[in-house]
Amino acid sequence: MGPRRTMDSMTSCRILLRRALAVAILTTLPVAYSQAVPTASQALQLSAFGTGTGVFTGLYGGHDAGITAGVDLSLFSLHGYHASAEVRGIYPFDKGHVDSQKSVMGGVKVDHRLARSLVYVDFLAGRGEIDYQNGGFTVGSLKYISTTTNVYSFGVGADLNVSHHFAVKADYQYQYWKTPVIPAGSVHPSVLSLGVVYRFDLNHYYKRTRQ
After folding, report:
1. In this structure, which of 38, 70, 169, 176 has its CB flanked by the most CB atoms within 10 Å?
2. Which residues, listed in sequence order, are joined to residue 204 by a DSSP beta bridge?
3. Residue 115 forms part of a structural domain
């Protein structure tokens, strides 16, 4: 009887331990889920911006003026730094006397809050078109009216907050374009922009739930 009772006791203990472990897991799952969902929803931020833009094209003193529009979608945050995916386009309405440049680019932006401002750096890549004025450029036996090429851009800027939704944007981009109309084969435009940012409140539902 002794060994049999010992085995029954061990079996009962194992059953009780398994039941206790199952109850513990089931009770912690709802808590973990309720903590995970709001955290993920808080990270989502979307903003749109529009600016007036002046471009020093880097081609024989050329310059033009236009507009820049874009959107930023946050990806993640780490130690006060926020990474976002950005898409922007530049379109000239004053094409200048030498050339004008238009482009669509996308890339990554990293920002950091300083007082009332968000300062940032970005790296963008895309496609662009150079339209040559005054009948184009003649190189050898070829005459170039326009050039379509890859564009790479490195920039810095700051968004000064004026309200929960609005900010004033100042932005500078240093770019790389290929062009066959100069011996160097490439130009490096400088792009200056000033405008406004609007932030969409995608976390409104989360705030109401928490309240």
Report:
1. 70
2. none
3. yes
Amino acid at 162: V
Residue type, 99: D
The predicted-structure confidence for 75-127, as pLDDT tens digits, reads as follows 999 999 999 999 999 999 999 999 999 999 999 999 999 989 999 999 999 99
- Encode 144-197 in three state secondary structure: ECEEEEEEEEEEEEEEEECCCCEEEEEEEEEEEEECCCCCCCEECCEEEEEEEE
For residues 94 and 121, membership in a common domain is answered with: yes
Q: pTM higher than 0.90, yes or no?
A: no
3-state secondary structure of 205: helix
Query: Under a CB-based contact definition with an 8 Å cutoff, are residues 135 and 158 in contact?
Result: no
209 within a domain of the structure (yes/no): no
Whether residue 210 is contained in a domain is answered as no
Residue type at 142 in one-letter notation: L
33 and 69 co-located in one domain: no
β-pair partners for 197 = 49, 167
- pLDDT for the residue numbered 105: 98
- Write out the residue range of the structural domain in which residue 34 sits: 1-42
Residue with token string 């564009």:
151
> Under DSSP, is residue 208 helix (H, G, I), strand (E, B) or coil?
helix
What is the β-pairing status of strands 117-132 and 99-114? antiparallel
pLDDT-derived band at 44, boundaries 50, 70, 90: confident
- Cα–Cα dist 10/64, whole Å: 85
Show the tokens assigned to 14: 């194992």
